[in-house]
Amino acid sequence: MGSVAMDSDYGAPRELSPLQKARALYQPELPPCLQGTTVRVEYGDAAIAADVAGAHVISQAFPHTYGQPLAHFLEKMASVPDANIITEHPVVRVGIVFSGRQSPGGQNVIWGLYDAIKAHNPNSKLIGFLGGTDGLFAQKTMEITEETLSSYKNQGGYDMLGRTRDQIRTTEQVKAAMATCQALKLDALVIIGGVTSNTDAAQLAETFAELKCPTKVGWKSLVVGVPVTLNGDLKNEFVETTVGFDTICKVNSQLISNVCTDALSAEKYYYFIRLMGRKASHVALECALQSHPNMVILGEEVSMSKLTIFDITKQICDAVQARAEKDKYHGVVLIPEGLVESIPELYALLQEIHGLHNKGVSVENISSHLSPWASALFEFLPPFIRKQLLLHPESDDSAQLSQIETEKLLAQLVETEMNKRLKEGTYKGKKFNAICHFFGYQARGALPSKFDCDYGYVLGHVCYHILAAGLNGYMATVTNLKSPVSKWKCGAAPITSMMTVKRWSRGPTTSQIGKPAVHMAGVDLKGKAYELLQQNSSSFLMEDIYRNPGPLQFEGPGAETKPISLSVEDRDYMGRIKQLQEYLEKVKSIVKPGCSQDVLKAAVSAMASVTDMLTIMSSPSFSGQATI
Question: In angstroms, rounded to a whole number, what is the distance separating the alpha carbons of residues 319 and 379?
Answer without folding.
Answer: 28
